[in-house]
Sequence to fold (111 residues):
Amino acid sequence: MTPQDFVSKLGAEVVDKNYALYRSLLLDTKASRALDPYWQRVLTLFSELSADQQEVLLELTRHVTIDAVANVLGVIDGTHALADADDVFRLTYGGQALEGDLQSTFLELAE
Fold:
């Protein structure tokens, strides 16, 4: 698997699937059917928004997911440091190193 394959699959698995999940949950679930108090509050708030505002919030969930994944990839690439992490992170697949430019490749694909 190449680094580009990895970030493409990561985007599909994490960003696209989570976006579809949240979109479905927010658009298709009534607050009265949610068991979790957190989701009851979220669904109540979401239902009070106009259709345009709902789409903006859904877009935000996608962008937040993209940013979170990109930040993790930046840690793996070494462009973002973790506090008290003195060594280098390595990501391998089948013995082949995948790190190096994952964050920028991921962000290019996510645009």
